[in-house]
Amino acid sequence: MWHFWSSPLRRTAIRRVISICQAQLPNIKVNETPKPFGDIWTANIAAVAAGSGMPDVIVEDRPQLVQRAADQIDTDLSEYAQRDGIEGSMFWPFTWTEATVEGKPYGIPFETDVRVLYWNKQAFKEVGLDPEQPPKTWDDLWAYADKLDKKNDDGSYARVAFNPDFGNAGWNVWGRTNGAEYLKDGKLAVNDPKVVETMDWIKKWYDRYGGYDKVQEFRGTFGAPPNDAFMSGKVAMILDINGYSSVLNFYNPRVTVPKADGSTEQQPLDVGVGDPPYSASYGKPASTSGGFALSIPKGSPNADAAWEFIKCATGPDGATSWSRDTSAMSANITAAKDPALMGDPRWQFFLKAMDYSHGADIVPNYPNWTTEIDQRREAIFKGEKTAKDALDEAQQAIDAQVGP
Amino acid sequence: MSIAVERPKAAQPRPFLRPATKEALTGWLFASPWIIGFLIFTAAPMLFSLYTSFANYNITTPPRWIGLRNYQVLFQDPFFYKSLANTFWMVMVKTPIVVVVSIALALLLAMEVPGGPFFRTIFYLPNVLAGVAAVFLWKWILASDGLLNRALEAIGIQGPGWFTDPSWTKPALVVMGMWWIGGNVLIYLAGLKGVPKELYEAGSLDGAVGWSKFRHITLPLLSPTIFFQVVTGIIGTFQIFTTAFILAQTGGNTDPFFANQSLMFYVLYLYYRAFGKIGPAGFQMGYASALAWVLFVIIMVFTLFQLWLSKRWVYYETEGR
Q1: pTM metric for this prediction
Q2: Domains in chain A and their CATH numbers?
Q3: How many Cβ pairs closer than 8 A exist between chain A and B?
């Protein structure tokens, strides 16, 4: 099996999954090999093309599966799934949709995630905000920011309240919180007014903090955990995936908090978890989810054994263990509602957030459609082009690619 | 006048091969490892890529012939022009700077001062370090609050966001490139040592000093070396990849549009297309091959132009002028 979970926390977690399945499948021996995230799929495709050296099981990025199926990289698992009664209803609906092509699964969903708001309760207290009341709407966010922004003597920012592009977030999820549907009746509409509004809204945040370049400079001072934007205290509110919760637990960062008598004291960072703020016109929270599936590369000599392992790893036993270790949302619904996980109040919140979360919009003849927006976002946020013009351009490029 | 060679009378056993043939064969045999390697690992893939440049090819299914489609699309592809412009910028700016700086360094190192070999080693040392590791190092040096900007701050200059401000990313790469000119310096140094001392002595007798010695003796005699360096330097810069590829990565993820596409160089774009990070769907090896062949032609034209130009400024001692 090839995966890319090489951090100590995740490597141990996948080993535990293997160990559990190994006990259930005494006739199978599972070896795991971590590969760099940037290379794993290229290496697999090269191996499949060469006809040898491919793993028996590979972790695939679900939205890519439609392409893997078209390129004949991965095996159609429908026969196995039908034989053993593995079906879509066992998984979060969008994870199954992403993993199937024309009704045939090319991977079994393993894990997913959901983007939620994390906020720094101490920073809220410091400026007189109720630490239990996160901002509900885009307008709340803006008003909260007026209080939470903090400048140094030289005019630079000691703390910014928020930026839609920080954390694990971008136009995609914020568009959802504005009610944008990128795919309408099977047709992409990236220049929809809702998307234009969202881009303008993100630009407003860049402008608030001195423009795109200034924000990039500020972003350049973020490090890896525990010196990232949020744990370092440089950003008070951030949108990130539920797995960030386990990173917070792991580092348990400390913050310096001023006391009434003028002195300061060190406290563990107190974090709140809430819904992503939404626009007034949409009026309810929304989020997005990504995640991975387990697939069998074409030509794998041990496909039958690989299937047995996939069934176990994506089933309640394997998936629950994975979620306990990593805080990643299990794609398997039974596993996601395992009592051992429900004991964590944050987990209960993540489950609730799954209800309003969206998977990827998969367009079989243009899986890379998001790059048409990505390549224009900087021009929009810098004010070189209006959001409307840039998105019209993106829409034209997409139409040229997929045809009318 | 012809010389009649008398054949030996006694009949010797005729060798199996004539000596000339044998010599030729031995030569080919000795060269064969390279020739076989070249044919299998260079010529064959090149021919294959020429073929795939006229095809749709995603590695797993056989190439499908589409004639000139790839080339037609390519010349209407905004990223083709964008990446070409970025690459041209590097070629035009970096090449002359590298020439001037490395000649200057070579002149300094050529001076007979104590510790010369030590400095030569020091300047060459960065070339020993693996490229990827060095890029990470520079990422740190050129960070917004990195070493260089802190040093600039100490003398009252507000340094730019080297890798965040798109107008500074390419200059940052040029600055980084200066670190690797040890190899160039060594070659210039060898060129300098090859200038005959008599010429300087003769020059001194004619009253030449400092700059005029450099201008009229050193530079002309160094011109073949400069020519070689300019040609190989330009070819190398056209193929720039590693530095930009690593800079565009955050946590193992590559952002193809990093810094407003200011570092999207030609070969990097080729890679993004080949491995399906940009463009319609899946691996686009055919399109990438077309890109590669267009680059081949561009580099060829540049090199031929250099060769033509070289007649006007490169001085070979054997020619006389």
Answers
A1: 0.82
A2: 2-114+289-358 (3.40.190.10), 115-287 (3.40.190.10)
A3: 81
